[in-house]
Structures are given as structure tokens and as C-alpha cells.
Amino acid sequence: MQLFLSPDFNIQSLRRKPKSAAQKIKEFKEKIQSHSLTNIGRVLEAFIPASLFDEHRPKTSRRRIFSIENTFWGLFLQALQPDSSCQSIVHQFRTSERGNKSSISASTSAYCQARKRLPTELLSTIFNHTAQLKDTKHPLLGRRVVCADGTGLLAADTEENQGVWPQQSSQKEGCGFSQIRLCALCNLHTGVAIDYRVGNKRSHELPLLRDQENSFAKNDVFIGDKGFICFYDQARLLDIGVDSIVALARRKPVSAGDAEKIIGDNDLLINVPKFTSTVARSRYPKERWSALPDAIQMRQIKVDFSFPGYRSKGVYLLTTLLDEVRYPAALIAELYRQRWGIELYFRDLKTTLGMEFIKAKTPEMARKEIQMFFIVFNVIRYLMSEAGNGSGDIVLAFKSCVQTLISYCNNGNTLPTKTSVMNISFLLSEIMKCTLYQRQGRIEPRQIKQRPKPFKLMTKPRSVLKEEMLSQAA
Predict the structure, then answer these.
(1) DSSP string of 114-150?
(2) What does residue 85 show for φ and ψ, rounded to 5 degrees?
(3) Distance between CA atoms of 19 and 38, rounded to whole angstroms?
(4) For the segment 256-280, what is each residue's pLDDT rounded down to a tens digit?
(5) Which pTM does this prediction carry?
(6) For the segment 222-245, what is each residue's pLDDT rounded down to a tens digit?
(7) Distance CA 315, CA 304 (A)
């Protein structure tokens, strides 16, 4: 009788040929790529290419389901989705695995360990890559306009977090949250975050801004509110070719009689001298302070805001844009009015994405969480800019764009094609539909209609309250 054998069988043992190491690696890669979390990486490959992971991938490492790519995209989804728990990501891994029975445990231990192993240098590389995706110049100025502002965040009340970011001194121990201070630079036209620094409640915005001095490029224009006016900073920026527009604070405006030149109504050319106070000079590096000029010329422009809802009715602006023909006072006033956009960017980060409260228990993971929020924010802002072709005529709703991206990534298996070019084109066409219709002159009261629930405020540590509850029950 003639025996017909499959070519997969070994003639000597009548068994299937043992799999080679290359076959095992290939099957394992296919298993990893079968998860839906890899769909978001395929969709956003144009913005975060896979090559960024290569140099940060460990050379001698076990092959894991929670690889460096899957862990990164898991963190990405945690910052993107409303449910930001680790358990939610693990469930997504389990339900996306092909086959009837999942081989991934429902425990979050493996994923949490993978998050800790994720290199901080990788997140920095990806953030810097997203910050440089679109270096758009402002259409009114023809130069890149960078605005800065600071905000506060809350972090989980743990001993490690409190050691780095202590709570308010007026709060009792165990009754408050760690206070994080953050200062960020954003492109005024696109909204993309260029850089940021993190400090504690004692950190002022100006020192955090000085740490980001290398993020400026020659011919940039810096815009800041009253917290960023300082002779040292404006002179340093001017020295590297960066002009400034800042609001005057705690100084009496220069009168027309003391001005170097009267350019126009409420537009004066003034001379801003160096500090004379020894205490003030001691705050800065001696070499840098000595290298600054004794005085710098600036324009003082008085701007009156007659828009409903604005708290400031008038403000004095100081700027190093001295050419009144190329930079008229009305243009400078409009640029400063648009500075309010960074407040909206912070609202998108803190309210829409949920960065207002950092859930990480350690400072290391808290910094990774903050960095991931900025990466997600930059990707969405870039998608919005690409969908609107970089023009300011079309305004897109940030929240709606987030919902579109979440829906698109969750349905990655039904994408029209597997090519990244077609995927991103289809995604941009959907984001283009997230139009935000502007209603000029609309104002809303800053009040809450819904009443808070009548829970008592925590005035004692949680452990003390638990003991009191147990003693009462007994």
C-alpha cells in the first residue's frame, strides 16, 4: 500500500517537522499584531513611525505580549479614552486576541510592570518628534508665534508624590493632593505643544520658562501674560533672535513725556533699563547678567478690550517689535488677544483628556503620564491642522476629534485598506466633519447649575476616619 504524506511531516519519524526559531518568532509577532491595540499604531504610523521604537528596544529581552510598542499604545489609549484604568487596557488585549480562549491573564500586574519598564527616553523622543511635525508660521505675522502659560495639576496622595510635589500647607496631612506646577510652550497657530516643564507649588513660571529657552528658534515671537515680564528674559530672548510681546505688570506705564519717541496714539518707544537692585541681580547667573545690555528699546502699547466676557478692559503691552510699519499696534493687539488660545489648549488637556488629575502613584510614572498626555494632544492637534489644511478658516472641535479617533481605532479591523496612506486619508476626511461653528459675541456665566451632592469634606486622614467608623460599628 502506498502511503501519501504531507510535506510538513518528517519521513523518519512520521511527525510534523519541528518549527525553526524564525518560524516561532514570526508566529509570535503575528500573535502580537493580532491585538486591536496595534490598529492605532497602524493608523497613526504617519505621525509616530515604528522606527522610533527601534533604538529604545532592549537588545536582549524576552518576547512579550506587552512589548514596548504595545505598552506604548496602551498608555496612549489610557490618555485618549475616558476610561483610563489599566484594567480597561488589559481587557482590550484579552478581547482582541484571535481564538476562542485568551492566553492573557485578567490581572493588570504584567501590564503595570511593562509600563514601569517603558523607557522615559522613548517618550521624550516621541514627544519631540510630535512637537516638530508641523512648524507652522502665523499667517498674520509670517513668523512662528510661541505662547507660554502655566497651570496647576493634582496628583495622587501618596508618600512618594508628596515628597516631590507637596500639598498646600493649609491642608491637613492626608486630606489633600500633591500640587504640580506646569509651564508649557505652544504654537499659537496650530496649538501643538513645543515643550513643557514640571515643578512643584513653589515653582514660578519664569524659572520653568528659562529651562525651555533652547526650544525657541531664531525669528520666533514669544507672547506671555503679566507673569512673564522681566528684563532678564526679554533681553535673553532678544539676544538669540526672539522678539517678545508681554503684558506690563507691577510697573507704572511710561508717560508720553518720558518716552523716546511717540509713534502713535497709545504707542510709545521707550527705554527699559537694567535692574539696579542687588537682590534682583543675585537671582540670575553672573556671567549671563553681565552679558546683557544696560537697556533695551521696547514699544509700549495700550490696548483696550471691549469684548463681552473679558475681565481686562485695558492692558499695557511691551514688545520688541519696533517696526511700526511692519508691525502696527492693531496687529500686536490682535496677537495678544489670540494668546487666550493657550488657555483653551490647557482646557483640552485637563478637561477633555483628563490631565487635571494624575493617577500615577509614583513621580516616575506621573511624569510618564503627563508626557503621554502631551503626545496624544499633539497628535490630535496635528490631525486637526492637516484636516483643515493649516488654514484658520475652519475651526474643528477638539472633543469631537478625540471621539472620532477613538471610534476609528476601535474599529481598526474594518479599515478600508491596510495601507497607512489610505488609512490616514480616510481618518482626516472624518475629522474634517468635526466642524465647530463659531458664534461671535457669545458669552456664558461662569456658574454651575447642578448642585453638588451633600457629602462632608474630608478633614481627617482616611485611616483615622476608617477607625472611627469601625469603632462606631462595634
Answers:
(1) HHHHS-HHHHHHHHHHHHTS--PPPTTTSS-EEEEEE
(2) -80, 155
(3) 26
(4) 888 889 998 889 999 998 877 777 7
(5) 0.86
(6) 999 999 999 999 999 999 999 999
(7) 7
